Amino acid sequence: MKFCVQLGKSGTETYDLLKKVYGDECPSRTQVFEWFKRFKEGREEIGDDQGPGRPITLKTDANIEKVGETVRQNHRLSIRADAELINTDRETFRQILHNNFNMKKVCSRMVPRLLTLEQKEIRMNICVDILQNNEKTQTFKERDSF
Questions:
Q1: Which of 104, 79, 97, 99 is nearest to 89 (CA)?
Q2: Exposure string for 92-103, b = 16+ CB within 10 A, e = fewer
Q3: Which sequence spans correspond to the domains of the chain?
Q4: Could you tell me if 58 and 88 are in contact, meaning their C-beta atoms sit under 8 angstroms apart?
Q5: For tag attachment on the chain, is the N or C end more exposed, with fewer CB atoms within 10 Å?
Q6: What share of the chain is helix, strand, coil (3-state, %, to 5)?
Q7: Residues 96-139: tens digit of each pLDDT
Q8: Closest Cα partner for 98 from 120, 71, 62?
Q9: Rounded CA gap, 12 and 18, in Å?
Q10: pTM > 0.85
């Protein structure tokens, strides 16, 4: 098409030539006229223009920090509620939690995949207390089957 524009051909002549060479594989008449017009106005590249709208990614360092702060403040909120707090979409929020904070979804809440050493110690202490209490009272072992 650029070649035809430089030769001074019209849009119709260009479409006819393309139709003759490419047959059914030729772009539609409307598309040929649109590109012909663009090349005539001085366009050099055939790639699409950058469209308006949201940036390609919302995973910026600032948003990652906001997500971490939000989860630390109240980890009981749902992904939807947290995402609304920092004005981002749910999927981006979920991906940041999953990829950057090593959390996974459990019952619509994000929780750490692995327990910290402190959490492991607390759980172990609770289990030891339950076992010691059980040994003292023996009520749990003496129960009949359910």
A1: 79
A2: bbbebbeeeeeb
A3: 2-40, 61-112, 115-146
A4: yes
A5: C
A6: 60, 5, 35
A7: 888 888 877 655 555 666 778 898 899 999 999 988 888 877 66
A8: 71
A9: 10
A10: no
**Phi, psi torsion values for 108, nearest 5 degrees:** 65, 15
Which residue is listed with tokens 């609304």? 84
58: left (phi over 0), alpha (psi -120 to 50) or beta: alpha
Q: How far apart are CA 101 and CA 68, in angstroms?
A: 8
CA 10 to chain centre: 46
| Residues 90, 80 contacting (CB under 8 angstroms) | yes
Nearest to 81 by CA among 101, 113, 109: 109
Q: How far apart are CA 62 and CA 70, in angstroms?
A: 12
Could you read off the pLDDT of 75-97 as tens digits, one per residue?
777 788 888 888 888 888 888 88
- Indicate the CATH number of 61-112 among 3.30.2320, 1.10.8, 1.10.10, 1.10.620: 1.10.10
